[in-house]
Amino acid sequence: MRAEVREHQTRKGPVLEVSMHEKSCLFRNEEHAQIYALLLEVLAEIRARQEGSLPSRER
After folding, report:
1. Number of alpha carbons in the 13 Å side-chain half-sphere of residue 29
2. What is the pLDDT of residue 51?
3. Which among 8, 58, 1 has a CA at the least distance from the CA of 33?
4. 3-class DSSP assignment, residue 39
5. CA distance 12 to 23
């Protein structure tokens, strides 16, 4: 699963919207947006593994 990052123009300047499923957040800092997108993807992978829809990684 991939988080979606879109740029929006606001009165105060450009912002990045990071969204995945029902979660969404706006950032002005591109690095913060990338970190949040990665966090959402990792959390989605963890949930999928807990639900048994993805195999666990071998150690």
Report:
1. 4
2. 87
3. 8
4. helix
5. 23
Half-sphere exposure of residue 9: CA atoms within 13 angstroms, side-chain side: 0
Within the chain, which residues score under 70 in pLDDT?
Answer: 54-59
Instruction: Write the single-letter amino acid at 27.
Output: F
Of 16, 7, 1, nearest to 54 by C-alpha is: 1
Tokens of 33: 């947006």
Other C-beta atoms lying within 10 Å of the C-beta of residue 28: 12
User: 0.85 cut: is pTM over it?
Assistant: no
**What's the number of CA atoms in the CB half-sphere (13 Å) around residue 26?**
8
Structure token pair of residue 36: 């949040």
Burial class (CB in 10 A: 0-12, 13-18, 19+), 15: middle
